Amino acid sequence: MGIDENIMNFIYGEKKQTPLQYREGDIVPVRITKLVDFGAFCVTKDEYLTSGLIHISKIPTDLHLHTMQVIDAEVIRIKEEDKLELSLLLHEKKDTPFQVLSKIKEPLPEKTVPNNEVEEIIQYLSKEFGIVSEESKKEVEEMVKAMGVFRFTMILNKTLPDFKRDLVYHFLKEMKKRRDGL
After folding, report:
1. Element (H or E) spanning 33, and its range?
2. 143 and 150 in contact (C-beta within 8 Å)?
3. Which residues form the S1 motif domain (predicted)?
4. What are 24-69's pLDDT values in tens digits?
5. Domain ranges in the chain?
6. Buried b / exposed e across 110-141, counting CB within 10 Å, b at 16+?
7. CATH number of 3-91
8. Are 42 and 51 a contacting pair, CB within 8 Å?
9. Quick check: 32 and 71 in contact, CB under 8 A?
10. pLDDT tens, residue by residue, 73-101
């Protein structure tokens, strides 16, 4: 048989079908060859180079494909002419049971203190001590938020009888601190 006959036989002769090596459920490496609106065409990355389609419904929404990308795919069905129908859903990120619970469970309400409660505490302090500075008001708000109204009030009531209300006393105490630092 001459070379021309071999070429003619190759072109027009019966194609030898290699038995397809895939079964449904197999995971095979594929190369994405073309992206289209309805999915992605691909070819297996082995000696058979079997073509297939990955329908858009079988591609996870958070998975971004590009041509020439090699990725593992699951064989869903083998169609006529040994074409493969494939899925990439095996790459879908599955939530752990704790993640599922955290999505279902409502977030705990944040600890809030009604503004009128803080304002009443500040008014009480101004009656006891006089003018309350903005810095002190913010400090009261932070302490009430951290401790809660009840606990703050309890500590206030325990501290108040022993506290020296003499402003000069506190001023001199501050001066002594600074003197010791010099």
Report:
1. strand 27-36
2. no
3. 25-89
4. 999 999 999 999 999 999 999 988 889 999 999 999 988 899 999 9
5. 3-91, 115-181
6. eeebeeeebeebbeebeeeeeebeeeebeebb
7. 2.40.50.140
8. yes
9. yes
10. 999 999 877 789 999 998 877 767 777 77
